[in-house]
Design brief:
The complex is a heterodimer of chains A (about 350) and B (about 350). By secondary structure, chain A is of the alpha+beta class. Chain A has helices at about 5-10, 20-30, 140-145, 170-185, 205-215, 260-275, 290, 320-340, and strands at about 35-40, 45-50, 60-65, 70-75, 80-85, 100, 105-110, 135, 155, 160, 165-170, 195-200, 220-225, 245-250, 275-280, 300-310, 315-320. In chain A, the strands form three sheets. Chain A has an eight-stranded mixed β-sheet with strand order 1-2-12-3-13-16-14-15, sandwiched between helices. Chain A has a six-stranded antiparallel β-sheet with strand order 5-4-9-6-7-8. Chain B has two domains: about 1-65 and about 170-335, Aminopeptidase (3-Layer(aba) Sandwich), CATH 3.40.630.10; about 70-155, Elongation Factor Tu (Ef-tu), domain 3. Classes of the chains: A alpha+beta (about 350), B alpha+beta (about 350).
Chain lengths: ~350, ~350
């Protein structure tokens, strides 16, 4: 599977943090014929090694995370409704009125009080998470318990649309990064490289922290999806990055100050590959780099992200052109880093 | 129940916002045409007749075919779509929602939602609908080519089965009412009746009931049964305003509704062992029955409501049993007309 088909397959798989099994199975199936070796870490991340034509000067690890944000069932009420908690940073304004899937494929909805029965001030406020619940159509707790239990994962039930040069889908963060790595693994590489598909990024960078320890790299490229705030009502200076502007290179975010040499090298790689790229114009967010760059004695780290609108909601949006630019840029950058001196 | 579910899913998948009900109306007409002749009136409502033509009693069976949605007002300089409400959309469910835009082609879009890093802790405030924007991922030129002011937008939610006989979809208000009418016609079309019956799947209920007003005038009935949805029990909603999901149809009691018909309906329900609840309203009902009762010199009317949770969100929930019971209650009532 390649291209948009692969991306759709990955994005429609369900896998909140700690429940990455379905995504992991897909990835293993895809990369098995191409990887030299595959290891599953104790926490569930995949470490795939691929032999290249040459031994690299710099031991490079490429990382994308398999998990997505979602919810988890915490309690079943007497009426058979499910209370839940967020897993990862979900914007509470986007929950109300959404269809979801619970546990082993049980359909549910996050309901809301009818507008007809709201007080005036309630009409213009989002519903606090504590007042939300999931309705799976159970008549009471006993019926609900036959199908779901506390600890079950909840994901949005959403769309996948790739018309007009865009992709609108759930879980683009970070299945798009996973897809880029899978495609890269299928190519002939100039140097040996390690590919990590990490678990539990959204809840604390746990998968990449432990995988980086295991791989013990000199350098890392983190593939992410990052907030593009180029939407209606946001000034250009607050837009962070633009959909259609190419892959996004970070200089600093909430967890990491990135390697300055590699930051500049990423722009050179884009130029060499003949694709657009842009700087992330804000110190916001964070990703697996936060854990990787401080692994063992330190790892020189760079983050290349896909600009994505409506991150951490039921449906995000990326441009296919950016996705392709990101592939080319990462491929080029990986060769430059692996072939370069680790101290330059 | 599966057949009824499939029928409701077919009706819900056909879009029909107020004033643009054509696709949904055609879907309803196709279903009705299996049993009797159906046609569209000039307000976009579907009309179908059966029973004893010219009988002294003429029953109008009404359910509205339209559903709430949005209407495109403008496309801004960056290609974002501006829209306003077309019916009582709940703004709280809009941010970050996937939508379907019915332009020159069917397009997907997302209601813009400011990223959390820009909301400065004022996260719970939700803009009025006309200040929101919809992102179809199109350039200004493409958006102008494909979308025009007046085009309609629906919140996207695929019909799905929940546990047991419960289902969820957008627009169950009032496609389940339409489904109940179709099911009622299915039960009655080959029976000898003492009355004339006209089915009206009326347009524009969500913006004032114009389809019911003009439809009822043209049909000129003596009696009317109106099927709409009403609130089912759910957390945070006062129980005295609610029916119960799976508790059977809610038979209305309100000043504009005919008390004799109320009594007949409850008697019929008891006789046929159809569970029901009563829905008591102090003034008007907020449904088409308010308008239909006042048609010409007046029409004796009664309201039957199907209990529904999360009204006017894209994830409305009903119990199929309640739809089937509503259809049976109407059919038994009409069979009993002398």
């Amino acid at each position: 599977m390649t291209g948009l088909k692969l991306l759709e397959h990955l994005c429609t798989a369900r896998g909140i943090s700690g429940f990455e099994d379905e995504v992991r199975d897909i990835i293993i199936k895809e990369i098995k014929p191409y990887a030299t070796g595959i290891e599953i870490t104790p926490l569930g991340s995949i470490i795939a090694f691929k032999k290249g034509e040459n031994t690299p000067k710099t031991k490079l690890m490429l990382n994308a995370h398999m998990d997505e944000v979602g919810m988890i069932v915490t309690y079943i009420t007497d009426e058979g409704l499910l209370k839940f908690s967020n897993v990862g940073g979900i914007d509470c304004r986007v929950l109300c009125g959404k269809p979801v899937t619970v546990g082993n494929g049980v359909a549910g909805v996050i309901g809301a009080k009818p507008i007809h029965l709201l007080e005036e001030e309630e009409k213009e406020k989002s519903v606090p998470v504590k007042d939300l619940y999931i309705d799976i159509g159970a008549e009471d707790r006993a019926q609900a318990e036959q199908y779901v239990m506390p600890g079950d994962a909840v994901t949005f039930h959403s769309i996948f649309d790739s018309s007009h040069g865009m992709v609108k889908s759930r879980a683009l963060d970070d299945r798009a990064g996973c897809a880029v790595l899978i495609e890269m693994l299928k190519c002939n590489l100039k140097y040996d490289m390690y590919f990590v598909f990490a678990v539990q990024e959204e809840t604390g960078l746990n998968g990449s922290r432990t995988a980086a320890f295991a791989v013990e790299p000199d350098a890392a490229i983190v593939l992410e999806s990052t907030t593009a705030a180029d939407v209606a009502g946001v000034d250009r200076e607050n837009q962070v990055c633009n959909v259609g502007g190419g892959a996004v290179i970070s200089f600093m975010d909430r967890h990491t100050i990135y390697d300055r040499g590699y930051y500049r090298m990423a722009f050179q790689a884009a130029k060499k590959a003949g694709v657009k790229c842009q700087a992330k114009r804000a110190v916001a967010g964070g990703n697996d780099a936060g854990a990787i760059h401080v692994s063992r004695g330190g790892v020189r780290t760079v983050a290349v992200s896909l600009p994505c609108r409506y991150l951490h909601s039921a449906v995000g949006m990326i441009a296919q052109e950016d996705y392709q630019s990101m592939q080319k840029l990462v491929f080029e950058l990986a060769e430059m880093i692996a072939g370069g001196d680790p101290n330059d | 129940m599966d057949e009824l579910k499939e029928l409701i899913f077919r009706l819900c998948e056909a879009p029909g916002t107020p004033g643009d009900e054509i696709t949904a109306a055609k879907a309803a007409a196709t279903e009705l045409s299996k049993y009797t002749r159906a046609h569209m009136d000039r307000m976009g409502s579907v009309v179908a007749k059966f029973g004893k033509q010219g009988a002294k009693k003429h029953f109008l069976l009404d359910a509205h075919i339209d559903q709430i949605g949005l209407i495109v007002t403008n496309i801004d300089e960056h290609g974002f779509i501006r829209a306003d409400r077309c019916g009582g959309v709940d703004r709280r469910v809009l941010p970050g929602s996937p939508v379907t835009i019915y332009g020159r082609e069917v397009l997907s879009g997302i209601v813009c939602c400011t990223p959390p890093h820009l909301s400065d802790g004022k996260e719970d405030k939700i803009l009025p609908v006309d200040k929101m924007a919809i992102d179809a991922g199109l350039s200004k030129e493409e958006a102008d080519r494909l979308i025009r002011p007046g085009d309609r937008i629906l919140l996207r939610s695929e019909p799905r089965s929940l546990l047991g006989t419960r289902i969820t979809a957008a627009g169950l208000d009032d496609r389940v009412g339409v489904a109940a009418l179709i099911r009622c016609v299915q039960l009655l079309h080959d029976k000898d009746l003492n009355c004339e019956v006209t089915v009206l799947c009326s347009s524009r209920e969500e913006v004032g009931g114009q389809g019911a007003v003009t439809g009822a005038y043209a049909i000129n009935p003596t009696h009317a049964l109106i099927v709409d949805v009403s609130f089912a029990e759910q957390p945070g909603v006062p129980p005295e305003k609610c029916g119960k999901l799976g508790g059977g149809p809610m038979i209305g009691i309100a000043p504009p509704l005919n008390r004799e018909m109320t009594e007949h309906l409850t008697e019929t329900a008891k006789k046929c062992h159809i569970p029901y609840t009563l829905e008591v309203m102090g003034g008007s009902t907020g449904t088409n029955s308010d308008e239909i009762a006042m048609t010409r010199k007046g029409v004796q009317s009664q309201l039957i409501s199907i209990p529904l949770r999360y009204m006017h969100t894209p994830v409305e929930v009903i119990d199929l049993e309640d739809v089937e019971r509503t259809a049976r209650l109407m059919a038994e009532y009409i069979k009993g007309v002398e």
